[in-house]
From TrEMBL, chain A:
Belongs to the UPF0749 family. The chain crosses the membrane at residues 20-39. Gene3D superfamilies: Protein of unknown function DUF881. GO terms for cellular component: plasma membrane. Keywords: Membrane, Transmembrane, Transmembrane helix. InterPro entries: DUF881. The keyword Methyltransferase does not apply. The keyword NAD does not apply. This is DUF881 domain-containing protein.
TrEMBL record, chain B:
InterPro entries: DUF1290. The chain crosses the membrane at residues 56-74, 80-101. This is DUF1290 domain-containing protein. GO terms for cellular component: plasma membrane. It comes from Candidatus Aquicultor primus. Belongs to the sbp family. It is a multi-pass membrane protein. It is found in: Cell membrane. Keywords: Cell membrane, Membrane, Transmembrane, Transmembrane helix.
């Protein structure tokens, strides 16, 4: 009872203010301590509580994870490399096959052809030239590496037929008449040499009366596609 | 008596409020705890010496805390563990004040 009364008097005195002030600071102190302990605990609890073997396990686990990820990265890099290579390869295949396709189209006479070559004019004043002479000319041009040939505007391909009657020569059942304008695309020098080789086609044609062969090299020759009627039997 | 109640109320309040503070600032909070502890014990000592001034007490508490926080901040910026200075200063004063409080308590008891 005496203690209680002294407490009451203390509250009414200067001591009361002192006590309240200190109590306020200690309350703040309590809040701070709790908060700090909590922060510190949450920050360190995870690893602090772990034993040494646990930590070793964690480290080795992380190392394993790193290794797996490294292996995965290497795998993916390899895959990327393979895919890149494959795409390069397929691009190469594409260009190669389109080149082949172009060559085949030229051979089959499906496309117009431009390029250097020769222009040959075959005169036949006495109509002594025969169909096989024409075939000989074509053969010599092919020997000279001609890629595309036309006679009087008619494209000569593998399927082209040359025939003759008493009066005239027919190419693909179309009558052709002298002078024959022969166009050939290829290396002009080589084709020229193939035609003028001694004992070759020019000498042979020259031996026929009224037949002569004039050859001119040309840097730009244009040969049309074969008429589609003949080659469209796909 | 009242300070003890205040401490318990503070602890309860801290537990209830659960103030989220990033771990980065735990150093500041530790210094603040030290400053508060120093102020509390300093206030106890002053009250025992009968020269307690509540204005002095509160300004002392806040200025000490702010200065300590600034020192921690400066130490972080300079790359020096400058907060140790605050820790040492508060620590020394804590022990001194505690010793004086102890002495006063025993002297009072002795007088009775």
């Amino acid at each position: 009872m005496k203690y209680f009364r002294s407490f009451i008097t203390a509250l009414n005195s200067q001591a009361k203010r002192t006590q309240i002030a200190i109590a306020a600071v200690t309350m703040l102190l309590g809040i701070l301590i709790v908060t700090q302990l909590r922060v510190h605990q949450s920050a360190t609890q995870a690893l602090q509580n772990a034993t040494e073997s646990d930590l070793t396990q964690i480290v080795s686990k992380l190392d394993g994870e790193i290794n797996t990820l490294r292996v995965e990265a290497a795998d993916l890099r390899l895959q990327l490399f393979k895919i890149e290579q494959a795409s390069n390869n397929s691009a190469e295949v594409m260009t190669e096959s389109s080149k082949n396709l172009n060559n085949l189209k030229i051979i089959a006479g499906l496309t117009k052809v431009y390029g250097p070559g020769i222009k040959a004019l075959v005169t036949d004043e006495d109509a002594t030239l025969r169909a096989y002479d024409m075939v000989d000319i074509i053969t010599e041009l092919r020997v000279g590496g001609a890629e595309a040939i036309s006679i009087n505007g008619i494209r000569i391909v593998a399927a082209t037929g040359i025939s003759e009657t008493q009066e005239a020569i027919f190419i693909n059942q179309k009558q052709v008449a002298a002078p024959y304008e022969v166009l050939a695309i290829g290396n002009p020098e080589v084709i020229h040499d193939a035609l003028v080789i001694p004992g070759g086609i020019r000498d042979k044609l020259s031996s026929l009366t009224g037949v002569s062969l004039y050859i001119t090299k040309d840097a730009e020759i244009k040969i049309n596609a074969a008429s589609s009627k003949k080659v469209s039997n796909k | 008596m009242l300070p003890l109640i205040g401490l318990l109320a503070g602890i309860a309040l801290g537990l209830v409020l659960n103030i989220p503070i990033p771990p980065v600032y735990s150093k500041y909070l530790g210094i603040a705890v030290l400053a508060a502890l120093d102020s509390a014990i300093g206030g106890l000592r002053a009250s025992l010496e009968m020269k307690f001034n509540d204005k002095l007490f509160f300004t002392g508490f806040f200025s000490n805390t702010l200065l300590a926080a600034f020192i921690v901040f400066l130490g972080d910026r300079l790359g020096i563990d400058l907060y140790l200075a605050a820790v040492v200063a508060f620590g020394v004063r804590l022990f001194q004040n505690l010793a004086l409080v102890r002495r006063h308590y025993f002297q009072k008891r002795h007088w009775e």
